[in-house]
Design brief:
Blueprint (H helix, E strand, L loop, with lengths): L11 E5 L17 E11 L6 E4 L7 E11 L9 H6 L2 E7 L2 E9 L4 H7 L1 H4 L4 E10 L5
Antiparallel strand pairs: 1-2, 2-3, 4-6, 4-7, 5-6
Length: 142
């Protein structure tokens, strides 16, 4: 997988869906398996610090939580990878009891920005099949 930090600019976040194997070199654009969310200028979460993201101006807003879902090959145990997470700047947040090969991690700094900026490092770990930052959207009623 290419180094994605060189492919990211401050106004966009590439969010993988369905375990993409590679990402586009230029932003904004999309690739099967990824979604490119645009940082909405001047829009912040209720904390007044965390930027909001969206597909376009009229689309629902998303806020990164700082958590990143990591799924390994089914033969691997998520909790056994703690040292690998630390070496990439993350720590175990919550293993999934129903999926012992998957769980949530957070940036060691505790910063949602650091988690978004560096989650691509996790995809390079041996045996990783899926990496996805957690985003919260406003609840919508039908």
């Amino acid at each position: 997988m290419p180094d994605q930090s060189s492919q990211r600019c401050r106004d966009f976040a590439k969010i993988p869906v369905m375990g993409a194997d590679e990402f586009p070199d230029n932003l904004p654009q999309s690739l099967p398996g990824t979604v490119v969310l645009r940082r909405m200028p001047g829009e912040f979460a209720p904390d007044g610090v965390t930027p909001m993201y969206a597909l376009s101006d009229g689309a629902p807003r998303a806020v990164p939580t700082g958590r990143v879902l990591v799924r390994f090959e089914e033969s691997m145990r998520f909790e056994d990878q703690a040292a690998s997470f630390i070496s990439e700047g993350f720590t175990v947040d919550q293993p999934l009891s129903y999926a012992p090969h998957a769980g949530w991690v957070r940036a060691l700094s505790g910063s949602a920005a650091d988690a978004l900026r560096n989650f691509d490092r996790l995809a390079r770990l041996s045996g990783v099949r899926h990496v996805e930052p957690q985003l919260l959207y406003e609840r919508a009623f039908r």
